[in-house]
Design a protein that fits this description.
Elements lengths: L6 H11 L3 H4 L9 E5 L2 E4 L4 E4 L2 H4 L8 H13 L10 H12 L7 E5 L2 H16 L3 E5 L23 H4 L10 E3 L12 H13 L6 E6 L15 H11 L3 E5 L24 E4 L10 E5 L1 H7 L12 H17 L1 H22 L3 E7 L2 E6 L11 H13 L2 E2 L1 E3 L5 E4 L7 H22 L1
Parallel strand pairs: 3-13, 5-6, 5-7, 7-8, 8-9
Antiparallel strand pairs: 1-2, 2-3, 4-10, 9-10, 11-12, 12-15, 14-15
Helix pairs in contact: 4-11, 5-11, 6-10, 12-14, 13-14
The structure holds 4'-deoxy-4'-aminopyridoxal-5'-phosphate.
């Protein structure tokens, strides 16, 4: 029987040997020491059960240790882990055929990676080789990942988003232009003209004179479930393409049915990107990522060299393949739609009741609840207050996330196996946490 280390020993080791950042992001004042997971549930080392509404940041797609996916992983682990893909093996081909079937034409050529950061780096490289241009445009609240090859990496494209929840940013002196979200604190914004105006200002600068790519998530994740004005992506894609650039949809958080209405988030915007990047939910938490692009862009890239030791390894492919089957069998997209819509409706009622809920937004099971000091000022609820509600929600048995530039937005993106009863449990807990906060401070 496996026995966990004591909490004190784990913290001692963490302090001494682990990346100092891990001390910053234990996430809670009283950290959660996880022992085990099953579907939408996590248990800590003391046997306390939590409803997990964050899913390792939208990563656990079909459920923690989903029995069917675990079985597929176990089978493959006994057969073949690795050979590098200079050899030909079945799991990779089974998977790529299945994944391609989920995407519209001409998005049919797949490159497998091990993470979202790698997928975005690769997409950026391909965009540059295909267009012959260098500049990249994105939005300031977009997190692309944390790799760090200077001027070549996704790390140079996330100027603001780490400042709030993480207390730091890696993106100083970024050579990449961004369009600012016009609703800070973020709130609902319908100002397509203002967004497009900002985009045109960016085009007018020398930085974006030779554009290789425009990167955007269909709904921002770490940025706090920020949605765009209607037609913003469609209009932007047109403007970018007119200038010779390609359009890249980062589906790391929004893909695989999470938005409920569609399997891919971009489908909700009536656009077809030139490239789609994906990771997180792709393999239910097993490390994997992918770039999917058109034969035309792949042909430009074929002039260069691309190799990835672990990308597309048989275990990741077997798991990802089983994830796609499980999504179909369990009806995860439908759950996202139904439970997500229910949550959004009920949270909107809470917004009307509480002065400190500024906005409820998102789609399916990609939800943001933006907290404000009061509805008139729309100033972000300060970190100490956020932390109080967050901690209280956890102590009552529900794990949620935080995001937004000021760390002012609670994020809900659970494994897509939650039920309406789970939603009701969360709503009762969250209501109690807000009630407690209001009692203590108003
Ligand atoms: N894109 C988005 C939208 C993300 O949210 C993240 C991670 N939070 C990444 C890319 C980077 O993915 P990874 O951590 O797998 O490198």
């Amino acid at each position: 029987e496996y026995k966990d280390m004591s909490k004190e020993r784990m913290m001692e080791i963490r302090r001494q040997y682990c990346n100092p950042m891990t001390m910053k992001v234990t996430y809670y004042k009283k950290p959660v020491y996880i022992h085990q997971g099953h579907m939408q549930w996590l248990w800590d080392v003391d046997g306390r059960r939590y409803l997990d509404l964050f899913a390792g940041v939208a990563t656990v797609s079909v459920g923690h240790c989903h029995p069917k996916v675990t079985e597929a992983a176990e089978k493959q682990l006994r057969k073949l882990w690795h050979t590098t893909n200079i050899y030909v093996y079945s799991p990779l081909h089974e998977y790529t055929e299945k994944l391609a079937a989920t995407l519209p034409d001409p998005l049919k050529v797949i490159y497998l990676t091990n993470s979202g950061s790698e997928a975005n780096d690769l997409a950026m490289l391909m965009a540059r080789l295909h267009t012959g241009n260098f500049d990249v445009i994105t939005l300031s609240e977009y997190e692309t990942g944390l790799t760090s090859i200077w001027l070549f990496s996704s790390q140079t494209m996330c100027p603001d988003v780490f400042a709030g929840p993480w207390g730091g940013s890696n993106c100083r002196d970024s050579p990449v232009q961004t369009i600012r979200d016009c609703s800070c604190p973020q709130g609902s914004c319908t100002a397509n003209d203002k967004y497009i105006g900002q985009l045109n200002e960016v085009f007018a600068t020398s930085v974006a004179s030779r554009i290789a790519a425009f990167f955007a998530e269909p709904i921002m994740g770490v940025g706090g479930a920020v949605q765009y004005p209607k037609n913003f992506l469609k209009d932007t894609y047109k403007l970018v393409r007119e200038r010779g650039g390609v359009c890249i949809a980062d589906e790391v958080q929004t893909g695989f049915g999470r938005t409920g209405s569609h399997f891919w988030g971009f489908q909700g915007h009536d656009v077809i990107p030139d490239m789609v990047t994906m990771a997180k939910g792709i393999a239910n938490g097993f490390p994997m990522g992918a770039v999917v692009t058109t034969p035309e862009i792949a042909a430009s890239f074929a002039k260069g060299v691309h190799f990835n030791t672990f990308g597309g390894n048989p275990v990741a492919c077997a798991i990802a393949s089983s994830v796609l089957d499980t999504m179909e069998e369990d009806g995860t997209q439908q759950i996202s739609h139904d439970v997500g819509t229910y949550l959004l409706t009920e949270l909107a009622k809470m917004r009307d009741k509480y002065e400190i809920i500024g906005d409820v937004r998102g789609k399916g099971l990609q939800i943001g609840v933006e907290m404000v000091k009061d509805k008139a000022s729309r100033k972000p609820l300060p970190p100490a207050a956020m932390s109080e509600i967050f901690e209280d929600t956890k102590d009552m048995g529900v794990l949620i996330g935080k995001g937004g530039v000021y760390g002012q937005t609670f994020r809900i993106k659970p494994p897509m196996c939650i039920t309406r009863d789970d939603a009701d449990f969360f709503l009762a807990v969250f209501n109690q946490a807000l009630h407690n906060y209001m009692e203590d401070h108003h």
